[in-house]
């Protein structure tokens, strides 16, 4: 038999399966979707790969020149007992390869938890020592890769036949959490055990065991603490005690903390949506519901319905809203049928959740982008909350969009797909307009006491005179008013750090990053100038490096400065700051939110992180300190982003009985994105923005592909960009439009110069081939230091 293996070498030449002989001793053990080690290249270095097909020798098509089968290399090791990738995933990878322009191997790897992609020591442990000992020189654990090929095959066979039980096969020690338990094997042996009076600890343990016979096992760690390791070992060596290792899920404690919760009675609008979704199959819905309209409640009930039909569900939420606040709502309804996947988990924890899904124990997977690959069987419903969020697009290879994967998987399973948002992406809303998706709308808040907040735009051009620091007078008055009433305030400033840049008043010098073409941001807490692109930090200069003047001033406010201003203005207020800098530590994000939720603070100040998902009844004022930060970015979606962000953050106010107010400070009060966010009128925004997109031939009227060509030497980057451009012009039809090459808005980062090209097209048969040719360019020796990034439907132009 011959295995077709995709090896872990991301190049065009290796972007196809290679044939390997399956040695006889592995014949009954290998399967499609398993990981293997295979010798690769001239040096026969062992590489990891995935078996994507198994064919008989006669059927095998081995290269064009029919190399003799006997020259084929053999698989060296089989790494799995069960496939880690299933048929659906392999098929999906094939489909993604055509639109994502990343190599197959990076797509396959993206579907698996990290732990299965890393190099590791494979440890194989048996619970039944007697049988294992017969084969493996008395050692309990044995590194898998150090076993010879036959021993390995035999081990797997014994496992398959159920003759030996493998307690675990670990990818690394961190992969599986085990607790050691000690149990009493033989009471008679215990009673007969003769001990001298001097062996006090041993006597104590004997008495302890005799007194506690009822409890059948004990924690090894606790026993060791009481009686010492030596004493326990002694009892084990006498076959009186037995040590076992039990695998435990790291998430277990978490589930036990959450109190179960029941469904709410749906209001009429929610009911209409619920019925439409549950009575359909194989359909995509856009659930367009204003903030606080109870979309999450619909998700919960739709999932419950799928489970009642014996099906499973995937619930995607943006990474940032994957807080316990959100996940607890799911655990409260579905208990430990829920598996949670997000980047805050350790590799080991992620692996636990993945195995729970593979084993069929999880019925609902709640997670961020990559959870869309969860290997659930029999999916009945997929939900993407806040579907417009850019975090659903991966911004490194493979650059896939979770929404596209969701559409594919829903079709594969005959499942329904729900895309939910208060501010849908234009692409999605336009598809609903055309009837590709069914549009469901929720027009008012779910909680019958709650109203949408009243929004006021503050023209900062007029307020310049009465402005103290970052705040207009009205904003300050409102904050005082709310503080006096013991209500809570959320303030958003979408810029972290202290100042956006520093400048010498005498010569105009602005320090910028030597690696990136961007000015450094002042951070007061660390007393440094930081680059927000490459992370470089340097001390704050007190004299201008250019002219030695001491007239250095700070310009533009970040969250740190506004926090300092607030502390000055409201010395009694309790303030929490939430931005990338305060949430670096694991769990910090949750701690800040739960402190705010339980009323330990009066003001929550943060970047856009605070705009989503928060459902705190005591928040009656939302203040946006500068609405314009995203508006002037050179990105055709800047209005859309601004509208979405303002609408989302405004939606945090007045979610329960108390009336909500929103104040938005802006220098562009007449801009339609800000005007319409002010009236929370998504539909009007959609119409106006569509008009703009149509005129300029942007999505959703046209499709886009961005290419970024990067090199350390700017001249090379330019030259190669023109080569790429020429290649595209030659291969694409006339109706595709090419823009560029132009430098990226931030033209240099990490010491590389970036040039970009944009393809706009409606229908372009030559696209796939042309882009693959471009992808292939980097293979040429002369292009070694060149980087070409292909981004199909780019979401970010900075
Ligand atoms: N049918 C209902 N009856 C009473 N309260 C409800 C109902 N549905 C939802 N709620 C409550 O209304 C509030 C808002 O609901 P939910 O968080 O589900 O809205 P959402 O549309 O997901 O919000 P957002 O998009 O703004 O985050 C919650 O406190 C929720 O418990
Ligand atoms: Zn930098």
From TrEMBL:
GO terms for cellular component: primosome complex. GO terms for molecular function: 3'-5' DNA helicase activity; ATP binding; ATP hydrolysis activity; DNA binding; zinc ion binding. It holds the Pfam family DEAD. Keywords: ATP-binding, DNA replication, DNA-binding, Helicase, Hydrolase, Isomerase, Metal-binding, Nucleotide-binding, Primosome, Zinc. Transmembrane segments: none annotated. Its cofactor is Zn(2+). PANTHER family: PRIMOSOMAL PROTEIN N. Residues 539-693 form the Helicase C-terminal domain. Component of the replication restart primosome. This is Replication restart protein PriA. The gene is priA. SUPFAM superfamilies: P-loop containing nucleoside triphosphate hydrolases (SSF52540). Zn(2+) 2 binds at residues 513, 516, 531, 534. GO terms for biological process: DNA recombination; DNA replication initiation; DNA replication, synthesis of primer; double-strand break repair. The keyword Iron does not apply. Initiates the restart of stalled replication forks, which reloads the replicative helicase on sites other than the origin of replication. Recognizes and binds to abandoned replication forks and remodels them to uncover a helicase loading site. Promotes assembly of the primosome at these replication forks.
């Amino acid at each position: 038999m011959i295995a077709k293996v995709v090896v872990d070498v991301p190049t065009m030449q290796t972007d196809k399966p290679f044939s390997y002989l399956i040695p006889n001793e592995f014949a009954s053990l290998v399967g499609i979707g398993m990981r293997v080690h295979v010798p690769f290249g001239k040096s026969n270095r062992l590489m990891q790969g995935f078996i994507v097909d198994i064919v008989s020798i006669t059927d095998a098509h081995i290269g064009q020149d029919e190399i003799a089968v006997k020259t084929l290399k053999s698989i060296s090791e089989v790494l799995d007992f069960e496939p880690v990738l299933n048929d659906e995933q392999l098929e999906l990878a094939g489909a993604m390869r055509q639109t994502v322009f990343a190599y197959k191997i990076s797509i396959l790897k993206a579907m698996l938890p990290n732990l299965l992609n890393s190099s590791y020591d494979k440890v194989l442990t048996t619970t039944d020592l007697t049988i294992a000992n017969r084969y493996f020189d008395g050692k309990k654990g044995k590194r898998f890769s150090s076993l010879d090929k036959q021993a390995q095959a035999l081990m797997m066979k014994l496992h398959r036949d159920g003759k030996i039980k493998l307690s675990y096969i670990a990818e690394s020690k961190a992969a599986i959490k085990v607790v050691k338990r000690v149990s009493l094997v033989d009471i008679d042996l215990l009673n007969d055990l003769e001990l001298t009076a001097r062996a006090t600890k041993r006597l104590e343990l004997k008495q302890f065991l005799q007194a506690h016979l009822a409890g059948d096992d004990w924690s090894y760690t606790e026993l060791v603490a009481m009686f010492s390791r030596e004493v326990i070992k002694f009892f084990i060596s006498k076959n009186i005690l037995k040590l076992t290792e039990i695998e435990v899920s790291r998430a277990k404690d978490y589930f036990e903390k959450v109190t179960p919760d029941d469904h709410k009675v749906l209001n009429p609008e929610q009911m209409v949506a619920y019925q439409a979704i549950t009575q359909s199959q194989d359909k995509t819905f856009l659930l367009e519901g204003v903030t606080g309209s109870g979309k999450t409640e619909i998700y919960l009930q739709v999932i419950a319905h799928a489970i009642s039909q014996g099906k499973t569900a995937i619930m995607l939420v943006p990474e940032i809203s994957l807080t316990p606040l959100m996940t607890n709502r799911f655990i409260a309804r579905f208990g430990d049928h829920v598996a949670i996947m997000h980047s805050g988990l350790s590799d080991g924890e992620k692996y636990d959740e993945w195995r729970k899904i593979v084993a069929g124990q999880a019925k609902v997977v709640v997670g961020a982008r990559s959870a869309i690959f969860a290997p659930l069987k029999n999916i009945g419903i997929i939900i993407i909350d806040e579907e417009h969020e850019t975090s659903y697009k991966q911004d490194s290879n493979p650059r896939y969009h979770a929404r596209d994967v969701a559409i594919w998987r829903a079709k594969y399973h005959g499942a329904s797909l729900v895309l939910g948002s208060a501010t849908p992406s234009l692409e999605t809303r336009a598809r609903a307009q055309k009837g590709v998706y069914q549009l469901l709308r929720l027009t008012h808040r779910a909680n019958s006491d709650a109203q949408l907040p009243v929004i006021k735009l503050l023209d900062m051009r007029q307020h310049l005179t009465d402005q103290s620091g970052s705040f207009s007078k009205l904003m300050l008055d409102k904050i005082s008013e709310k503080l006096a009433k013991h209500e809570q305030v959320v303030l958003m400033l979408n810029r972290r750090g202290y100042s956006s840049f520093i400048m010498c008043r005498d010569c105009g010098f602005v320090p910028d990053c030597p690696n990136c073409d961007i000015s450094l941001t002042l951070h007061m807490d660390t007393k440094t100038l930081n680059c927000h692109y490459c992370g470089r930090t340097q001390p704050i200069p007190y004299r201008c490096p250019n002219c030695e003047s001491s007239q250095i001033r700070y310009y533009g406010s970040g969250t740190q400065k506004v926090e300092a201003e607030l502390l000055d203005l409201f010395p009694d207020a309790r303030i929490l700051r939430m931005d990338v800098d305060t949430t670096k530590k694991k769990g910090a994000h949750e701690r800040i939110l739960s402190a705010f939720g339980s009323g330990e603070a009066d003001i929550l100040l943060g970047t856009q992180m605070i705009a989503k998902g928060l459902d705190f009844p005591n928040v009656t004022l939302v203040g946006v300190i500068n609405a314009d930060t995203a508006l002037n970015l050179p990105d055709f979606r800047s209005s859309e982003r601004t509208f979405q962000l303002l609408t989302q953050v405004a939606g945090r106010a007045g979610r329960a009985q108390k009336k909500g107010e929103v104040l938005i400070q802006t220098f562009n009060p007449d801009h339609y994105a800000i005007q319409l966010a002010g009236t929370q009128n998504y539909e009007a925004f959609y119409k106006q923005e569509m008009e703009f997109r149509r005129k300029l031939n942007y999505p959703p009227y046209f499709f886009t592909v961005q290419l970024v060509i990067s090199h350390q030497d700017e001249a090379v980057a330019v030259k190669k960009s023109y080569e790429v451009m020429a290649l595209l012009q030659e291969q694409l039809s006339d109706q595709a439009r090419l823009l560029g090459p132009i430098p990226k808005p931030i033209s240099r980062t990490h010491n590389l110069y970036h040039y970009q090209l944009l393809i706009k097209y409606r229908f372009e048969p030559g696209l796939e081939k042309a882009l693959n040719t471009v992808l292939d360019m980097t293979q040429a020796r002369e292009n070694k230091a060149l980087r070409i990034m292909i981004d199909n439907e780019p979401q970010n132009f900075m």
